Amino acid sequence: MDQNITEANSPEVLVATESRTPGSVAMSLRNVAVSFNGKTAVRDCTFDVESKKVTSLIGPSGSGKTTLLRALNRLHDLTPGAKVNGQILLEGTDIYRGDMTATELRTRVGMVFQRPNPFPTMSIYDNVISGLRFNGVKKKSMLDEIAERSLRDAALWESVESRLKVSAGNLSGGEQQRLCIARALALDPEVLLMDEPTSALDPIATLRIEELLVTLKQRVTIIIVTHNMQQASRISDDCAFLLMGEDRAGELIEFSTTQKIFNDPKDSRTLDYTLGRFG
Amino acid sequence: MTVLLDNLKDDDLTENISAGPSRGWYHWLIVIASSLFAVVSIGFVGSILAYSFPAWGHAATLITGRGWQSPTGPYGGLAMITGTLETSLLALTFAVLVGLGTSIAIVFLVPRRLRTIVATAVELLAAVPSIIYGLWGFLVLAPWMLKSFDPFLAKLPFSSAIFGPSSQQFGPSLLLASVVLGVMILPTFVAISREVISAVPNDLVEASYSLGATRWQVIKDVVLPAAKIGLLGATFLSLARATGETVAVALVAGGVADVQFHLLQPGTSIAAWIATQFGEAQGNEISALMALGVLLMLINFSLSLISRSLVNRQRKALARV
């Protein structure tokens, strides 16, 4: 593993090297690259995601943020021709080559999508516990307890308490997205991946989700893709900046604390992007 | 520039667009064509109703009577109605069970490159003229069923109660008609249900995988419930196709106007009965056949309407997500 880290410190990839206590790293990416049918979509991604912090992935369209994020819970397994190279470690275990199944991984690394996608045929309650049901939990008292806790954690309990059996389609967009967060939280994941979770929401709903994320990081590590730089600077602790290279493949330009990325970046392209000079 | 604009305004905009629809030859062509369509449709439905009119005086016999006494009457249609229901529903059961599995396999199991080929092949099968299904049923399936399938059926419990004695001659029976119909509507059901299933938004599929669902759970707990209404629509549309099918049933059902619940015995359906009888029919018998036709039309209209409204509901339900 040490060897990998050294390799990754190629000149254009500037990895934050502040000392981190062992165990505080939730996920480690080592030279991660994703290709579709042999064509590289994103590459050279090496950084550590710290536990119980918000890490944002920023960069213009086509820089591979979402592609990288989807590699972290093996969603690319569903796409024929997709290939993930390099190493992704969850608590030290290689998620692609270790003895972890994709199903187990996805219960430990949850995902919230760009468009709220509650299951339209299920009630609010059934949506929240769907992940538990998929994983064989049947005990009613346990399901009830986790449903309430997850909805409380997603700041949705008060508004849906009285209508848990109502179809999830009746909720507003912001409520639907919080339901999707609750649904992911119900499995008590270590890491929560979020792919531009507020891009389909109005400013007020966005603000409420952002507040929620700041509370949530006390118990779950959050990795969030956003193309809203204010959002990244408001809520994230660490920040990875990706950019599309000349061969149209995205690559990691810089990874550091959000503070540094926005105030004192090492790469001039990072500065240009955060100042809004392109993208 | 100004000159150009002025020209354009004068010549084109003012005369052709601002002055309302122009009455060119194509305008009249469209008016004539559409009026012709209206006349033909009204004339078609009207004349069928008119021809069937005398038979409605004996509506009760037509719907509940047994036995078709040509040329004197009475003309009882119960055998045709039960035959239609038996063969269509049996065919539908077969088509839905096999077809649902097939559509799921096409969407979720078949490799992406093969998927288009398989889907196209299914759609081509749905377009095969029904006489060919009928011929196949008569020449290939019937002898095989007599030789291999009927003896197997005979060993099943309650066999004689359900299937009755095998006709043992050429093999035409309600069961054979049902199987031929089932094979015939299978591609129709698969073609529609495959589309309904693939229309389930991918983000629901991804959401379920992200919650640790297995592929089977994704299909069973998320995709099929989301596609439920559309699948029901596909079912009704296939049923409509089965009830209206004529020539294949005429070839393999046996053409016997008996109310028959033993599936290995010959029977008939409304459509097949009309096709085989109208050549020699006269007077009241023509009215009776026409009235049976109206009945069939009503059944088919309702099935199509139900199926269409279901498919629309499905579309709206998914659009809301």
Can you tag this structure with a few keywords?
heterodimer; A: 279 residues; alpha/beta; Rossmann fold; eleven-stranded mixed β-sheet; 12 helices; 34% helix; B: 321 residues; mainly alpha; MetI-like fold
CATH superfamily placement of chain A: P-loop containing nucleotide triphosphate hydrolases
CATH-scheme architecture of chain A: 3-Layer(aba) Sandwich
> What is the end-to-end distance of chain B?
50 Å
Taken from the alpha-carbon principal axes, the silhouette of chain A is globular
Total individual domains of chain A: 1
Contiguous helical run count of chain A: 12
Shape of chain B: globular
Low-confidence stretches of chain B: none
Tell me about the largest β-sheet of chain A: 11 strands, mixed
Helix content of chain B: over 70%
Please, could you describe this protein's structure?
The complex is a heterodimer of chains A (279) and B (321). Chain A is α/β, with parallel strands linked by helices and 279 residues long. Chain A has one domain (2-121, 188-274): Rossmann fold (3-Layer(aba) Sandwich). Chain A has 12 helices and 11 strands. Chain A has helices at 2-8, 65-71, 102-108, 124-128, 130-134, 140-153, 157-160, 173-185, 203-216, 229-235, 258-263, 268-274; strands at 14-15, 25-36, 39-50, 54-58, 82-90, 93-94, 109-112, 191-195, 221-225, 238-244, 250-257. In chain A, strands 1, 2, 3, 4, 5, 6, 7, 8, 9, 10 and 11 form an 11-stranded mixed β-sheet that branches. In chain A, a hairpin with a 2-residue loop joins β5 and β6 (93-94). The two termini of chain A are 35 Å apart. Mean pLDDT of chain A is 90; it is low at 1-20. With 321 residues, chain B is mainly alpha-helical. Chain B has one domain (59-320): Orthogonal Bundle (MetI-like fold), CATH 1.10.3720. Chain B has 13 helices and no strands. Chain B has helices spanning 2-18, 25-52, 59-64, 78-108, 112-126, 130-155, 159-162, 174-198, 202-210, 215-244, 247-252, 270-277, 284-320. In chain B, α6 packs across α8 (174-198). Chain A binds chain B through residues 73, 75, 78, 80, 103-104, 106-107, 110-111, 113, 115, 117, 119-122, 130-131, 133-135, 169, 180, 183-184, 187, and chain B through 111-112, 201, 203-214, 217, 221-222, 225-226, 228, 317-318, 320-321.
